[in-house]
Design brief:
7-stranded antiparallel β-sheet; 147 residues; Pnp Oxidase, Chain A; alpha+beta; 7 strands
Length: 147
């Protein structure tokens, strides 16, 4: 569990999705808007604010591990949650009714490429985001359940 005061996203649609997902145990608001593409929710602690943050991302799962793709839609900078996960890789993952503790690690090289391809298979726009990001390599974390 990640302790602290929860501060919802400043983007209303994100805050609403997280609220609906959690309230329903993952049976509602479990896709990206009207795409039908499944999402997960992960929880971090803000590296500056100390507030609990919850982020919906595309569900890129393989053998119980998940990719967290820090695309920010191809923006030139990383999303805020990237810095939270970098500062403390112990996060809570939710893919269904209950969150559980995981550890995230930044993947590089061949392992990153394998996960990147999995991510693009799930959400094709990641390929466009890569082009938009220019010189910024979009970071990919992989989460694994804590033992």
């Amino acid at each position: 569990m990640i302790d602290g005061e929860y501060e919802p996203s400043t983007w209303d649609w994100v805050a609403d999705q997280v609220e609906a997902y959690e309230a329903s145990g993952g049976t509602e608001a479990n896709t990206l808007r009207d795409t039908g593409i499944p999402i997960i929710i992960f929880t971090t602690k803000g590296h500056k604010s100390g507030k609990v943050r919850k982020v919906p991302l595309m569900r890129v799962e393989h053998e119980g591990s998940y990719a967290l793709v820090a695309s920010k839609g191809g923006a030139p900078s990383h999303p805020g949650w990237f810095y939270n996960v970098t500062a403390d890789p112990n996060i809570m993952m939710q893919d269904g009714p209950e969150p559980y503790p995981t550890v995230a690690r930044l993947v590089t090289g061949e392992e990153r490429e394998v996960w990147w391809e999995r991510a693009v298979e799930v959400f094709a726009p990641y390929a466009e985001y890569k082009e938009k990001a220019g010189d910024r390599e979009i970071p990919v974390f992989v989460t694994e359940p804590q033992k």
